[in-house]
């Protein structure tokens, strides 16, 4: 089995720019480069990452999105049958051995049916966040369904844990959250840390030219925040911190890279605090590696995490880090060696940490170098892909999911050319 080429399908809700989407993009590129795996990506909503995935030689299939909710029961059932048939056809067309899902929510259960209605042999569900249950934002209509659907999902996950081949958690804390929410399913969970392609980050750029493109002076000091504009990421606390920092450090500016539901609300906060000339909303960008390389510091003020890809990318760039002491981040960041950890939701502590690093550039530079070394050694894309390959083979060989979250033998994976 180890010498056979595996056909693996990764199914993700959309291909917008985001952490889980970047995990899939990186993972399938390195799985393909291993020479022992032929991945394909399936999604229900096209997005900007499709082109990047296809450029490395991985096929992308886009299926129509869900059209009906469970309240329209007959139409909902027809919708589910339509999606199941489309997925089954893809499994047959690509002779898929393993399906791995990301961000599918209730569609995870539909994918599970493929184990019993096709020749598919393994289905894995990936959890990217410590908070993975339904939220009110996911139900713009029929909010009265939130609690019933949450309880039903918990029950279904617990029941499905006996049927699904395994769960993948992207960090130790995500595994703990799964057990707490779903139940004693630890024997079915394997932790495979997110990984980053270090080659993409930290390349020399014309920092002055990038500042001029942004309308900034050459000697401007820049902070980068790469995160979707949503409650989880804690942007508002950094904005509060900047209201204190800017009067003392008027040359300091912040780039908010990413878009999301809170953009308008955060822009109002920025204007109210007279920070419009210091905080810039750049939206979703395809040149994140270049923007990071032009910055002096990376800040991640999250209230909770899974294992932030943006954090790994900033560390791979060689940036010093100020981040909140939340799940995932505490697993990656070594306090006072690769960055500074502060409690979440406390702008005063953010202020102090940012000013400490801004006032000590030598220490900041040493932290950035240490951060890059740590990511290259412990959170590389090669390591992530190797652990996935080993898990696929283990399950296809009929072995159970390892009881140890770190107990997977790793396959060697080379970097793509």
The CATH homologous superfamily name of the largest domain equals: Glycogen Phosphorylase B
Given helix and strand content, the structural type is alpha/beta
Residue ranges: pLDDT <50 for 5 or more in a row? 403-407
Order of helices and strands: EHEHEHEHHEHEHEHEHEHEHEHEHEHHH
Largest sheet at a glance?
A: 7 strands, parallel
> What fraction of the residues are assigned to beta strands by DSSP?
15-25%
- CATH classification, class level of the largest domain: Alpha Beta
Short descriptors:
2 domains; 41% helix; 417 residues; six-stranded parallel sheet; seven-stranded parallel sheet; Rossmann fold; single chain; alpha/beta
Structure commentary:
The structure is a single chain. The chain has two domains: 6-195 and 380-396, 3-Layer(aba) Sandwich (Rossmann fold); 198-378, Rossmann fold. Helix 1 packs across helix 16 (381-396), helix 9 crosses helix 14 (347-358) and helix 12 packs across helix 15. With 417 residues, it is α/β, with parallel strands linked by helices. It is 41% helix and 16% strand. The strands form two sheets. The chain has a seven-stranded parallel β-sheet with strand order 3-2-1-4-5-6-7. Strands 10-9-8-11-12-13 form a six-stranded parallel β-sheet, with helices on both faces. Mean pLDDT is 91; it is low at 403-407.
């Amino acid at each position: 089995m180890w010498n056979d080429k595996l056909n693996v399908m990764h199914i993700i809700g959309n291909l917008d720019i985001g952490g889980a989407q970047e995990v899939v993009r990186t993972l399938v590129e390195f799985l393909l480069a291993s020479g022992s795996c032929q991945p394909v990506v399936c999604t229900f909503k096209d997005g900007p990452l499709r082109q990047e995935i296809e450029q490395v030689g991985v096929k992308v299939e886009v299926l129509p999105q869900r059209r009906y909710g469970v309240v329209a029961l007959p139409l909902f059932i027809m919708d589910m049958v339509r999606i199941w048939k489309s997925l089954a056809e893809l499994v047959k067309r690509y002779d898929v051995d393993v399906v791995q899902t990301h961000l599918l929510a209730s569609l995870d259960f539909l994918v599970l049916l493929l184990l019993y209605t096709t020749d598919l042999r393994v289905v894995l569900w990936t959890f990217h966040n410590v908070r993975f249950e339904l939220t009110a934002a996911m139900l713009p209509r029929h909010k009265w369904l939130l609690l019933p659907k949450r309880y039903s999902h918990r029950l279904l996950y617990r029941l499905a844990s006996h049927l699904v081949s395994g769960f993948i958690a992207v960090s130790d804390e995500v595994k703990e959250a799964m057990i707490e929410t779903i139940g004693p399913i630890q024997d079915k969970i394997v932790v495979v840390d997110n990984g980053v392609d270090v080659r993409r980050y930290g390349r020399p750029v014309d920092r002055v030219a990038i500042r001029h493109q942004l309308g900034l002076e050459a000697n401007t000091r820049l902070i980068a925040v790469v995160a979707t504009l949503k409650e989880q990421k804690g942007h508002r606390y950094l904005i509060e911190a900047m209201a204190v920092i800017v009067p003392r450090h008027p040359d300091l500016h912040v780039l908010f890279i990413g878009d999301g539901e809170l953009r308008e609300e955060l822009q109002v906060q920025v204007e109210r605090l007279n920070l419009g000339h210091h905080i810039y909303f750049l939206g979703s960008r395809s040149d994140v590696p270049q923007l990071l390389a032009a910055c002096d510091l990376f800040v991640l003020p999250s209230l909770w995490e899974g294992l932030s890809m943006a954090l790994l990318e900033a560390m791979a760039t060689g940036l010093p880090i100020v981040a909140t002491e939340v799940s995932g981040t505490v697993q990656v960041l070594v306090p006072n060696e690769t960055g500074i950890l502060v409690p979440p939701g406390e702008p005063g502590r953010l202020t102090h940490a940012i000013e400490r690093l801004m006032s000590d550039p030598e220490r900041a530079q040493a932290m950035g170098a240490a951060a890059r070394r740590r990511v290259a050694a412990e959170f590389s894309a090669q390591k992530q892909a190797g652990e996935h390959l080993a898990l696929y083979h283990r399950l296809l060989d009929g072995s159970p999911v390892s009881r140890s979250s770190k107990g997977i033998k790793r396959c060697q994976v080379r970097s793509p050319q």
